[in-house]
Amino acid sequence: MERKPVVIPQEALEKEAAVCGQIKALWASRGRTPRAFVDTYGCQQNEADSERIRGMLRASGYEIVDTEEGADCIVINTCAIREHAETRVYGNVGALVHTKARHPEQKIFLCGCMMGQPQVVERIKNSYRHVDGVFNPHELWRFPELLQSVLRTNKRIFAVDDSAGNIAEGIPVVRSSDLKAWVSIMYGCNNFCSYCIVPYVRGRERSRRPEEILEEVKGLIAAGYKDITLLGQKNVKYEFNYRPDVLETFDNKHPDHDYWVKFNCPEFTTLCPITGQPDFGTIYISYIPDEKMVESKSLKLYLFSFRNNGDFHEDVVNIIMKDLIKLMNPKYIEVWGKFLPRGGISIDPYTNYGRPDTKYEQLAQTRFVNHDLYSLDKVDNR
After folding, report:
1. How far is CA 160 from CA 255, 371, 375, in A?
2. What is the pLDDT of residues 281-300, one digit of tens each?
3. Which of 272, 315, 323, 348 is an active site residue?
């Protein structure tokens, strides 16, 4: 049976708002202002979700603080996209057993994409007994009642709805900036790519009503916000023919010293200009930035645009390097292609550039002479 996303009824959201008032009254009866700490891992959508969690906490009478020490409520918003982020979450959640030992009344909640995975929830339930509550992204709007339940009963709660997702409008927000704001226009995904967990933990694709989005944006503009980022738009267009114009830059925030930036692109594809057969390889790009840096998503789209383009391997690395020099004028850059064999021969072209009449020109000469003395085969980005 097809699972369809739902819009949370206004009456249900009003009930949650009333619960916020009840929690606030509870703390007022205890004669003090509670404190809450929200820690966020992962993407901009998680940042936006954390702003809503802070909004519900503030509506419940909590002061938002910047540390878990002494907080009455801790919420960790997790990310399931990268293994490193998951490992950090487990480590940091484990360390909270000590803060809770010093503050036994402290309530700890875990939410976010990791909590959309049954095996993770089971691990938290069995191995992290100091965690009071777990809820996945579909249950975020119910956080006030989950918090109230834990405060009243001191019993652990696990809200992990396995639905196609929902849309909840009107949840209070405490934004992390006075100038920059996130605005979600859609949630979830329908693509179910083999390498991506988003549809499983964020649900099916669902869009907010345009009038709700416009009302939120108008309110932000009236409040003085200057930078509004729309989250969830799926208008990325993959070009199959060479498109250097898709490349974008951003400012280097550390121009006072040199450092390396390295891109490893293991799924590069282009066409043989003679036979039209596909060539597969890995492109390694290393550079020392000056004032501008290449934005990684635009680089991904740029490299993808070689897919139906006919170029010799030797041309590819030089075209890429020259386009990036034109784009961001780096102090130094090198591009190395390691292509899979065809016809019993593999080709690994290398090219580099150092800014003329500087120490980087000498660096380029040294790296060029010695480039074959070290191996790129040991690169491991797990």
Report:
1. 46, 52, 46
2. 999 999 999 999 999 989 99
3. 272
